[in-house]
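ARCHIVE RECORD
Type: protein–small molecule complex
Small molecule: magnesium ion
Source of inputs: curated submission
Record status: active
Notes field left blank by submitter.
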Amino acid sequence: MRKLKLFALPYILWMVVFTVLPMFLIVYYAFTNAPGNSAPTLEHFFKAIDPMYMKILLRSIWIAFLCTALCLLLGYPVAFLLARARNGAVWSLFFILPMWMNFLLRTYAWMSILENTGILNSLFVAMGLGQMELLYNENAVILGMVYNFLPFMILPIYTNLQKQDVSLLEAAQDLGCNGWRVFTRVTLPLSMPGVVSGITMVFMPAVTTFAISRLLSGGKFMLFGDIIEQQYLSTGNWNVGSMLSLIMLAIILLSMGLMGRFGSDTKDGGGML
Amino acid sequence: MSNQDALIEIRDVCKLFTDDGDEKQAVDHISLTIRRHEFVTLLGPSGCGKTTTLRMIAGFETPTSGAIYIDGKDVSAVPPYKRKVNTVFQRYALFPHLNVADNIAFGLTVKKLPKDVIAQKVDAMLRMVGLQGYNKRKVTSLSGGEQQRVAIARALVNEPEVLLLDEPLGALDLKKRKEMQIELKNMQQKLGITFVYVTHDQEEALTMSDTVVVMRGGTIQQVGTPQDIYNEPRNRFVADFIGESNIIDGIMPEDERVVIGDVSLDCVDKGFAPNEPVDVVIRPEDIYIVTQSDKGQFKGTVESVVFKGVHYEMQVRDTAGFLWLIQDTSMFAEGMEVGLIVRPEDIHIMRKSDDPNAAVYREEEAL
Ligand SMILES: Nc1ncnc2c1ncn2[C@@H]1O[C@H](COP(=O)(O)OP(=O)(O)OP(=O)(O)O)[C@@H](O)[C@H]1O
Ligand SMILES: [Mg+2]
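STRUCTURE (tokenized, with ligand):
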């Protein structure tokens, strides 16, 4: 036991310095006028719930929701095909490899594809379709987010589908299910834990996204993550920034709680993962 | 066997698995007719193709050549979900996301039967397998024996013409297994459903079946009633696989006479060529031991004695050097000089040429 504790020390230290301490500072900054005045105050909270910020918050949640839905719609079939393919493990590398590249690099890559003088538009012009405004709008932002977060949807679902017991699928066929019914009555319900973790893993980063949205919208359109970034880096109002961060954190915890409950419900049904 | 009694006909079926250039002949030219209401058991050692045969009847594998007929119709093009066949899988394959009642109701809900009819049938099934009141239980919380009953109920509730069972009792302890053997047999007789049962336990096969199909290396060695298979094994492999036996080389100089070494014995078999070499099978319980060694047909010395509960199992080395396995209710001490007597009707003669694998055994024995 003592030895174990000793090994845990660096980790505990790391947690304290880089997680607990910053957390504490954020709370402290959010409810005081630090660094000047350490008297508790709620004024930053009232500033933070300004309708302008709340509108952006709602939009962020909406965009994250859209992004998660699109990832699910695209990711489930991909995961299904990968799980059924002969060399699924090899093919899945194509979806994992880009994850090893920095997301900013990948976002810049998309910019060069979507630009007015970019690859797609050159193609359109060559085909006589004329130039289209592809970059710097909401669709470009959603595209970038879906692209960046899709692997986080595919992987947990793929893992789940791959582990599913083939004899269960055969049992369903034996009891009268055709291919589609086998899917809706056995494969899909059994894959719910994978779907739940996929949704969680996409929604969390999506709702806190910054940079991707700023770059692909050309700064035209801000998400909540961008607002927080702005409060710290350009406006220099750390107190309001901290309060906004806390609001974001509350939302994440809330949605995680909801997903957790949903996830454990499906687990009660005897799911895997 | 009248042909309209035939429910399943397997005609010259082969199954060749090809995995990355690796070829495996899992089933090798088998033909078999299964009659309505029959309890047929596929029996054989691990890897002999029992599961593969069953899966071809269910439709999960397609024969490489040959055809399977159910109710007189070639089912090659019929997918599993359209066959009037249900399966109890080797490891049950219960749906973990459904409770006991929903598992049993699965096939009925696929057929979209009315809810109250389904509930009624499920309850009746639960009663039959002795699990009343288990409706809402999670299948993952059941014991092996209970899961097995649910698997049987889930298949039987669809009132299939044929129930395929792949080693359904494999995971149960000996006592439970014996109980379930009797229950399954009773169910089969009560419902009048055709059972195709897979096992590698010869005792189980002999207890439950109307017909036993002994398989080896993808081929059928013998088809017959349990009595036939036990008393008249067609070749050395069957004799060896079904119960313990003494298998000795012999020669038939004439009808109803066999010579083993320099001992000449009366027997009841005939129709062999003069001086044809044969395999002679004598079951351990069919050999009588007498204390006066000259009164026996064979003379020998007891080499070992093991108490087996109902009887003693003794090994006796005869003067020609053959080691006999003998079961007797009385004990003969180690080192005792004894005589052995066999009645003519307990001697079974098998043609060596009836045994397609004869050469293989000799190789195996030489190893
Ligand atoms: N899908 C498959 N691909 C390749 N080979 C297979 C496949 N299924 C079965 N085999 C091979 O075919 C042979 C027969 O297998 P099968 O499962 O029918 O045996 P079995 O008699 O049921 O054995 P057991 O008593 O161990 O269950 C085995 O050698 C097995 O390795
Ligand atoms: Mg098997």
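CURATOR ANNOTATION: The radius of gyration of chain B is 24 Å.
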